[in-house]
Design a protein that fits this description.
mainly beta
Length: 151
Protein backbone atom coordinates (compact mmCIF):
# COMPACT_ATOMS: atom_id res chain seq x y z
CA UNK A 1 0.00 0.00 0.00
CA UNK A 2 2.74 2.48 0.99
CA UNK A 3 4.67 1.70 -2.21
CA UNK A 4 1.65 2.48 -4.42
CA UNK A 5 1.05 5.75 -2.61
CA UNK A 6 4.73 6.71 -2.87
CA UNK A 7 4.78 5.88 -6.60
CA UNK A 8 1.59 7.89 -7.17
CA UNK A 9 3.00 10.91 -5.33
CA UNK A 10 6.32 10.64 -7.18
CA UNK A 11 4.52 10.39 -10.56
CA UNK A 12 2.40 13.43 -9.71
CA UNK A 13 5.45 15.49 -8.76
CA UNK A 14 7.64 14.48 -11.71
CA UNK A 15 4.96 14.74 -14.44
CA UNK A 16 5.24 18.53 -14.91
CA UNK A 17 8.98 18.15 -15.55
CA UNK A 18 8.54 15.36 -18.08
CA UNK A 19 6.96 17.44 -20.83
CA UNK A 20 6.95 16.17 -24.38
CA UNK A 21 9.52 17.58 -26.77
CA UNK A 22 7.71 18.48 -30.03
CA UNK A 23 4.26 19.97 -29.86
CA UNK A 24 1.83 22.59 -31.07
CA UNK A 25 1.39 26.04 -29.59
CA UNK A 26 -1.62 26.63 -27.32
CA UNK A 27 -4.36 28.99 -28.45
CA UNK A 28 -3.04 32.54 -28.28
CA UNK A 29 -2.04 35.45 -30.48
CA UNK A 30 1.23 34.92 -32.35
CA UNK A 31 3.12 36.67 -35.13
CA UNK A 32 1.30 36.24 -38.44
CA UNK A 33 4.17 34.21 -39.94
CA UNK A 34 4.16 31.60 -37.11
CA UNK A 35 3.11 28.03 -38.05
CA UNK A 36 2.51 26.64 -34.54
CA UNK A 37 5.53 24.35 -33.94
CA UNK A 38 7.09 24.05 -30.47
CA UNK A 39 9.89 22.14 -28.80
CA UNK A 40 10.19 21.80 -25.02
CA UNK A 41 13.46 20.76 -23.45
CA UNK A 42 16.39 21.66 -21.23
CA UNK A 43 18.93 24.26 -22.33
CA UNK A 44 22.10 22.27 -22.98
CA UNK A 45 24.12 24.92 -24.81
CA UNK A 46 23.92 28.50 -26.01
CA UNK A 47 26.22 30.00 -28.59
CA UNK A 48 25.84 33.40 -30.23
CA UNK A 49 22.14 33.53 -31.13
CA UNK A 50 21.59 29.75 -31.01
CA UNK A 51 20.03 27.57 -28.34
CA UNK A 52 20.36 23.80 -28.05
CA UNK A 53 17.54 22.11 -26.13
CA UNK A 54 17.58 18.44 -25.17
CA UNK A 55 14.78 16.15 -24.14
CA UNK A 56 15.59 12.74 -22.66
CA UNK A 57 13.17 9.92 -22.04
CA UNK A 58 14.34 6.44 -21.15
CA UNK A 59 17.28 5.69 -23.47
CA UNK A 60 16.31 8.23 -26.16
CA UNK A 61 17.56 11.82 -26.31
CA UNK A 62 16.18 14.34 -28.78
CA UNK A 63 18.07 17.56 -29.51
CA UNK A 64 16.66 20.76 -30.99
CA UNK A 65 18.90 23.56 -32.23
CA UNK A 66 17.32 26.87 -33.07
CA UNK A 67 18.38 30.44 -33.75
CA UNK A 68 16.65 33.43 -32.17
CA UNK A 69 15.28 35.70 -34.88
CA UNK A 70 16.10 38.68 -32.61
CA UNK A 71 16.75 39.27 -28.92
CA UNK A 72 13.67 38.28 -26.89
CA UNK A 73 11.39 40.76 -25.14
CA UNK A 74 12.06 39.35 -21.64
CA UNK A 75 12.03 42.03 -18.92
CA UNK A 76 15.42 42.47 -17.27
CA UNK A 77 16.02 42.83 -13.53
CA UNK A 78 18.51 45.66 -14.16
CA UNK A 79 15.90 47.64 -16.19
CA UNK A 80 18.26 47.55 -19.16
CA UNK A 81 16.23 47.81 -22.37
CA UNK A 82 18.44 45.31 -24.20
CA UNK A 83 16.51 42.17 -25.07
CA UNK A 84 17.46 38.71 -23.83
CA UNK A 85 19.98 36.90 -25.99
CA UNK A 86 20.58 33.16 -26.09
CA UNK A 87 23.68 33.51 -23.88
CA UNK A 88 21.52 35.15 -21.15
CA UNK A 89 19.58 31.92 -20.63
CA UNK A 90 21.17 29.73 -17.93
CA UNK A 91 22.12 26.16 -18.81
CA UNK A 92 19.66 23.71 -17.27
CA UNK A 93 16.66 25.99 -17.81
CA UNK A 94 13.59 24.10 -19.02
CA UNK A 95 11.78 26.08 -21.71
CA UNK A 96 9.60 25.93 -24.79
CA UNK A 97 10.80 27.35 -28.12
CA UNK A 98 8.11 28.49 -30.57
CA UNK A 99 9.67 28.12 -34.00
CA UNK A 100 9.32 27.91 -37.76
CA UNK A 101 11.53 25.87 -40.04
CA UNK A 102 13.32 28.26 -42.37
CA UNK A 103 14.52 26.81 -45.69
CA UNK A 104 16.85 29.04 -47.69
CA UNK A 105 19.84 28.95 -49.99
CA UNK A 106 23.29 30.12 -48.92
CA UNK A 107 26.08 29.97 -51.48
CA UNK A 108 23.95 27.65 -53.62
CA UNK A 109 23.37 25.20 -50.75
CA UNK A 110 19.93 24.53 -49.25
CA UNK A 111 19.96 25.19 -45.53
CA UNK A 112 17.24 24.14 -43.10
CA UNK A 113 17.21 26.11 -39.86
CA UNK A 114 14.87 26.34 -36.88
CA UNK A 115 14.02 30.02 -36.42
CA UNK A 116 12.80 30.78 -32.87
CA UNK A 117 10.07 33.45 -32.80
CA UNK A 118 9.16 33.18 -29.10
CA UNK A 119 10.15 31.41 -25.87
CA UNK A 120 8.46 30.49 -22.61
CA UNK A 121 10.20 29.35 -19.43
CA UNK A 122 9.04 26.31 -17.43
CA UNK A 123 11.90 26.72 -14.94
CA UNK A 124 14.09 29.73 -14.24
CA UNK A 125 17.23 29.56 -12.10
CA UNK A 126 16.18 26.15 -10.80
CA UNK A 127 12.67 27.25 -9.78
CA UNK A 128 9.52 25.85 -11.41
CA UNK A 129 7.16 28.43 -12.89
CA UNK A 130 3.49 27.63 -12.34
CA UNK A 131 1.66 27.01 -15.60
CA UNK A 132 -0.72 29.92 -15.02
CA UNK A 133 2.27 32.27 -14.48
CA UNK A 134 4.20 31.32 -17.65
CA UNK A 135 4.62 34.05 -20.23
CA UNK A 136 5.40 33.81 -23.92
CA UNK A 137 8.18 36.26 -24.83
CA UNK A 138 8.53 37.31 -28.46
CA UNK A 139 11.86 37.02 -30.27
CA UNK A 140 10.76 38.33 -33.63
CA UNK A 141 11.78 41.33 -35.72
CA UNK A 142 9.75 44.12 -37.19
CA UNK A 143 8.14 47.25 -35.84
CA UNK A 144 4.77 46.31 -37.30
CA UNK A 145 4.44 42.63 -36.47
CA UNK A 146 0.94 41.43 -37.30
CA UNK A 147 -0.62 39.03 -34.81
CA UNK A 148 -3.28 36.41 -35.38
CA UNK A 149 -4.94 33.81 -33.21
CA UNK A 150 -3.45 30.36 -33.62
CA UNK A 151 -5.79 27.45 -32.92
Amino acid sequence: MFTRVAISIFSFLITPLATSQYGTAPNNYYPDKYNGSTFTGTVAETKNDQIALTYAKADKTDTFIGRLETACSVPRADNNSRGMNASDIPLGTVMTAFFNVDNRKVDGQKIKENLILAISFITWQGQNIAEDKRTIYLCTAGKHVQFRAYH
